[in-house]
Amino acid sequence: MNPLLLKTPAAPAAPSWQDRIVALATRPAVSSLAPAKPSVVFESSPPATDPTYTDASKNTVDPSSDDAIGALLARNGTPGQAGSVFAGLGQALLGRVTTEGANFSSSISGATGADSTISLGIQTASGATVKLALSATADGLSVALNSDRTLSEGEKKAVAGLSRAFQDAVDGLSKQPPMLSLDGLMAADPSVLTGVDLSATVATAPGVHETIDLHAGSDSRTLKIAGAAGSLSLGLDMSQPATWGNRAQREASIANTLDQIDAAATRGHADTSLVALFKDGFSQLNSHYPPSPADASTRGTTRDLSSTDHALLTGLADFQASIAQAGSSPNPMRSGERDTFNYELSQSTGLSGRNASDRHISQSLSSHLTATFHTSPWADTALHLTNQLGSQNYNYTEIDDSAHASTDIAYAKGKLVSASVSHDANQDTRVRKYMVGQLIDDTDTPTHHEATRDLLPLLKAMARPSAGTQLRLG
Predict the structure, then answer these.
(1) Which of 65, 116, 119, 435 would be a feasible disulfide site paired with 202, CB 3.0-4.6 Å?
(2) Whole-angstrom distance, CA of residue 460 vs CA of residue 474
(3) Rounded CA gap, 76 and 107, in Å?
(4) What is the pLDDT of residue 465?
(5) Any idea where the domains of the chain sit in the sequence?
(6) Quick check: 281 and 222 in contact, CB under 8 A?
């Protein structure tokens, strides 16, 4: 059979006008220097004049133009449309700042099948505020962008520079379950943009919502999330950059903190999805630190830290973090026995003294875990508690752990006079064992451990002149 005589498949349905504009707005321009590509011409090829098939490189559309955003709204607002209802909208709206201006609003009516709102606020060093809002409800899909004053060219560039990061955040929050993709927003230029605030309410099930509030400013970063599984809160104090370490040290400290969270979650039988969100939030808030101050700005002050000082600290900004799992009562015969998980951890760093030669550095880390949970008394049997006495075979565990670690460094007349690390940990585990509803064993096991290590002899042995202050070790 001659392959040239094969019937040509039926041509696919022509794309809608919205898809044509979206394709033109999002397709990268084709270079005129690109080599020609071979092509196959079918008997039923559409006429060259059909606008659906014209070369996108000859018809570029500004992705932030009214037409392009209108096409995105029309496409995303179509019930059953694949992908996020906010796909591409956040990036396109912020992109308008450098082209069309920062004042725009548009909406379409009709059911979207979504129930979410996401807003972004950006504050500039000059005092301007740019606000962006995306909303998808049963009534329709709407977007709005405005600025309370005219932006400078530098501000426009910095604001528009967050467009991809904002879209990443929107796309993450639009997933089921919502995911965090906030690290790009941490990279805002602090010399131009002094604050970035993200607020979202997204549906995780019919009538069930999760709220997310993020603030990234020059002095602090905070993240709060609340939903059906529980809540979490994270806060970073960004006001002491002199205590921060380099990127490698920070990444190592982040990894160590995540390991601690995993250990607490395992011991307390925590909800894995909530813990994963907690870890993602901690990692992302600690990404993209601003540049540390130049040596000249700290030289001779208590913030003039040596390489020895930095080696003994975590390198992270001070923080407070907590996670609280929504409690449940899995035993219908004893509703007072609840499954819970609460974990808090924090870091605090203090710098005191008159100057670099006479100063004291202290850093403390604390954690506290409380948890209660039911487990089967047999490893090979699943727990299934009902109103029947025969099911009432289980262990009920209560945990109360606390830990504290501190690092202290002191200098007198330019000489390192003390350096120590101390640890203090308490664990209390109470297990009550029931068989056929009867308490047959109640065991409480408290433990305590503490230790202090004097680091001065070790540091003396490793002493080298400090590049910044030439401090002496006695």
Answers:
(1) 116
(2) 7
(3) 11
(4) 52
(5) 13-27+50-212, 219-474
(6) no
Q: In this structure, what are the phi and psi dihedrals at residue 155, rounded to the nearest 5 degrees?
A: -70, -40
Residues 92, 64: Cα–Cα separation, whole Å: 5
CB 390 within 8 A of CB 420: no
Least confidently predicted of 286-295, 349-358, 428-437: 286-295
Task: Decide if pLDDT at 88 tops 90.
Answer: yes
d(CA 86, CA 201) in angstroms, rounded, equals 13
Residue with the two structure tokens 């982040």: 254
Q: Give the tens place of pLDDT for each residue, 172-200.
A: 999 989 999 999 999 999 899 999 999 99
Whose tokens are 């200098």? That residue is 411
Rg of the chain over CA atoms, in angstroms?
A: 29
Q: Is there a contact between 361 and 383 (Cβ–Cβ < 8 Å)? A: no
Distance CA 469, CA 267 (A): 45
End-to-end, the C-alpha distance of the chain in Å comes to 95
- Token representation of residue 431: 């297990």
CA distances from 454 to 363, 415, 449, 457 (A): 15, 16, 17, 7
Average pLDDT over residues 391-407: 98
